[in-house]
Amino acid sequence: MTSPRTFKVQSFGCQMNVYDGERMGELLAAEGMRAAGDGEAADLVVLNTCHIREKATEKVYSEIGRLKRPDGSRPMVAVAGCVAQAEGAEIARRAKVDVVVGPQAYHNLPALVAKAASGTVALDTDMPAASKFGALPARRKVAPSAFLTVQEGCDKFCTYCVVPYTRGAEVSRPFSAIFDEAKALADAGARELTLLGQNVNAWADEGRGLHDLIEAIATIPAIARIRYTTSHPNDMTDGLIAVHRDVDKLMPYLHLPVQAGSDRVLKAMNRSHTASSYLRILEKVRAARPDIALSGDFIVGFPGETDAEFEETLKLVDEVRYAQAFSFKYSPRPGTPAADMAEQIAPAVADERLQRLQALLNAHQTAFNCASIGRRTEVLVERQGRKPGQMLGKSPWLQSVHFESAAKIGDIVEVELVSAGPNSLAGTELVRSAA
Ligand code: 5AD
Ligand code: SF4
Question: Which residues hold [4Fe-4S] cluster 2 (predicted)?
Answer without folding.
Answer: 154, 158, 161
